[in-house]
Amino acid sequence: MRKYAIDAIRNVGLLGHQGSGKTSLAEAMLLCSGAIDRMGRTDDGTTTTDFDPEEVKRNISINLALAPCEWKDAKVNVVDVPGYLDFQGEARSAMRVIDAAVLVTPAQGEPEVGFDIAWELATSASKPRAVFVSRMDRENADYQQVVDALRRTYGSQIAPVQVPIGSGDHFAGVVDLVRMRAYEGVGAEFHEVPVPSALEDVVAAHRERLVESAAEGDDALLEEFLDTGSLTDEQVVQGLRAGVRAGKLVPVLCGASTRNYGAASLLNLIVEAFPSPVDAGEVEGESNGVKAVRTPSASEQMSALVFKTLADPFVGQLTYFRVFSGSVRSDTHVLNANSGKDERFGQIYVIRGKTQEAVAEIGTGDIGGVAKLSSTRTGDTLCGASKPFRLPAIEFPKPIYEVAIVPRTKVDEDKLGPALQRVTAEDPAFHFRRDPVTGQTLISGMGETHVSTTVEKLRKFGATVETVAVKVPYRETIQSTAEGQGRHKKQTGGRGQYGDCHVRLEPLPRGAGFEFVDAIVGGSIPRQYIPAVEKGIVEAMAGGILSGNPVVDLRCTCYDGSYHDVDSSEAAFRMAGIQAFNNVAPKANPVILEPVVSVQTVVPESMMGDVMSDLSSRRGRIVGTEPLGGGRTRITATAPQAEMLRYAIDLRSITRGRGVFGTEFSHFEEVPAHVAQQIVAAYQKSKQEKEGGH
Fold it and tell me: 375 Cβ partners below 8 Å, 6+ apart?
């Protein structure tokens, strides 16, 4: 692939709901442009951009993928973005490196939640966009219904530039509203036909609205339109380009990707109306702690953003980057502005799916890849060492769904740590941690599918794991004061063991922790053994009273005891402390405490009642609601952590993916009696199984 000037490059993302036809559209664009000679099928796992084994197995896109093609003396870098809600991190990455978005929605029904999310991302990132209505060849295709739904949601900026000729099995082509010509045919092999008489009124109405929208995109054109009442085709193109790039106008096209209908028209629109990296303008960042900018120019210092890393156990790490200024050449050294480390660039590539074409240089505004960088992660900035420059990091969504994992074998356990590190480097939306209380290794992501695909990635790196239920980090405490004795006496034939202590346990306010009071007078327990008593108490507290969970928020006062001149030792008094706690704590009205989280859920107003009802069924308490505008409401509540383990999945089901939430730890509170009985029963059963296993 030849090198292109900056103004001849278009970086375009394909976004939308899962299954809307994005990958098939990318395939049609590649075939239409001659980049590939045969169209793959998603059902067969043969498409260019779905090449990962998990993507083939599941028939969904998991990773963003590159599909560059050449069209009319321009290079179009197509970024195929997963639509599955679990992989929103990929969409965030793509938004940082594309200059415009094509939002794909099928011609059956209204746009779904993935489309809305993609629209919101494009809006917040100020990206121009177009809409491609796919699957016009399928049953129940209704282009006008989709257009009307888009206008109801997004207003007058929605501007169809095509009208389909037929639909379903009779879909044959489109009428181009810009040039008022009708075309039929496949791919780039289409031919002009007369506008069907049955469509003349529809075409005229859409053309009139398009001319008005194009005029509003440019002040001079608006004046011309007000004076004459019309615009030439060239002026419509001019207004369309200005309106799209300003974000005032969203053109709507249609097609049937699996039959290669519509890809050529979309490529024409991309080249004619979408911005180049020059139009996108300078990028902001920082240099040596001071705000700085870089302009999209070949003469500028080099800066590039890493937006994707793919870790392969055989090939190594493959790094995708976009060059925002200057150029990147093979066999050079660059600076990682985030880590401060030098990176050597070996051979650089233009990447299309899983294929890599070696090139000598990636110029300003273009996208490329390089293998085997040692210390570079997604979101890092690569730049020239002489003038460091760092772009803002990519903001990834916080994980909302967590599971525990256990390695199957000792070998898997040894490989788990490195495997987790490699997966995290590849996917910053994935997190892992070890819970210090339960001892579990926890992994978290954006949903059940995200987590399950991550488990497969771990296996790819040699760590086979199984998922198990997350243990809730319960605590225990006491509610009344009790006193008692712990005596450890043992004679083994030689020197014996003797330790004796009397303790008083008292409850403390929630969150106060543990307090040990030495109230020994008269030397009933020698000073050197007092710390051993405390150590024993603390050790016993860790084992719990009722359910094996740590005991918190109490004061232990050691007020009496006895010792033996020969047989007493620190070890004996530690055992006495353990026995004292185990004897006294059950008499102090012990209870189980559960962690309670604060929950903030944002949902459409129409679904607020269902969501609040669901939270109440989880023993949640609604704290308040707050309208946010745009038909959305924030619900603030508190709920037990144990009831929220699958909330991400259930909320998505209740709101059809339109609800989002976040949680953070709030406090501990007493578990209701019926729940406490279940916890104790489960603990006793587990304890018996362990003892039986030994």
Answer: 336, 339, 341, 343
**CA distances (Å), 198 to each of 147, 379, 505, in order?**
19, 53, 89
Select from 447, 451, 448, 445 the least CA-distant residue to 430. 445
Residue 161 near residue 206 (C-beta atoms within 8 A): no
Backbone angles phi, psi at 530, to 5 degrees: -60, -45
**Mean of pLDDT values over 228-248:** 85
Task: Give the three-state DSSP class for 450.
Answer: helix
Q: How far is CA 130 from the centre of its chain?
A: 24
Q: What residue type is 686 in one-letter code?
A: S
Name the average pLDDT for the chain.
92
pLDDT value of residue 557: 97
Give residue-wise pLDDT tens across range 377-399.
Answer: 999 999 998 889 999 999 998 89
How many whole angstroms separate alpha carbon 239 and alpha carbon 135?
29
- Global pTM value: 0.87
CB 396 within 8 A of CB 326: no
Distance CA(14)–CA(76), nearest Å, equals 12
Distance CA 538, CA 92 (A): 47
Question: Strand, helix or coil at 313?
Answer: coil
Q: Provide the pairing of β-strand 361-362 with 328-329.
A: antiparallel
Q: Torsions phi, psi of 599, nearest 5?
A: -120, 130
Contact 447, 401 (CB under 8 A): yes
